Each structure stands twice: as C-alpha cells, then as structure tokens.
Amino acid sequence: METNNDDAAKEERKRALQKQSSGFLKYSGMATQMLGTILIFTYGGYKLDEWQQNDVPVWTLVLSLLSIAGSLYMLIRGFTKK
C-alpha cells in the first residue's frame, strides 16, 4: 500500500517540475524573441540610415522604438493570454 503512495507522490513531483520548467521555457523564449526583434529592426534602421547617408539616425531611432513598442505589446499579450 505504501508503494502506491510513494508512486503517487513521485508522479505529483514530476508534474510540478514539468509545469515549472515549461513556464521557464515559455518566458525565456519570449525574451529571446523580444531581443531578436529589437536587434533586427535596429540593424535595419542603421543600414537604412547608412544607405540614405543621413546625418541624424532617423531610421535607427524610429525602427528601434517601434520594435520596442511591438515587443512590449507581444509580451503583455503573452502574459494576459494564459
């Protein structure tokens, strides 16, 4: 009878660990996606400014701020979606 309780306790710990690790993977994936989006848009703005030979890095500023706003929107949407 005690082995059934031990097996049930082990199974419960296993489920709790899986739930915890899936949350970690979800949020680390979101962070990676945010970082990638911001870097790609900022690099694109930098290249546009370089191509247009702008004195003021307008495209870099606009695209980096746009990517930050978009990333925050996706982050908030991901948190509230649960």
Concise overview:
The chain is mainly alpha-helical. The protein has helices spanning 2-52, 58-81. It starts with a helix and ends with a helix.
The dominant shape is rod-shaped
Count every helix, treating DSSP H or I runs of 4 or more residues as helices.
2
Overall pLDDT: 86
Order of helices and strands: HH
Report how far apart the termini are.
38 Å
Report the count of strand segments: 0
**Residues in helices, as a percent range:** over 70%
Strand coverage percent = under 5%
Instruction: State the low-pLDDT regions, or none.
Output: none
**Radius of gyration using CA atoms only:** 22 Å
SS-based class: mainly alpha
The quaternary state of the protein chains shown equals single chain
| Biggest sheet layout | none
Written overview of the protein:
The chain is 91% helix and 0% strand. Helix 1 (2-52) packs antiparallel against helix 2. The radius of gyration is 22 Å and the shape is rod-shaped. The chain contains two helices and no strands. With 82 residues, it is mainly α. The two termini are 38 Å apart. The longest helix is centred in the N-terminal third of the chain and has 51 residues, at 2-52. The model has no long low-confidence stretch (mean pLDDT 86).
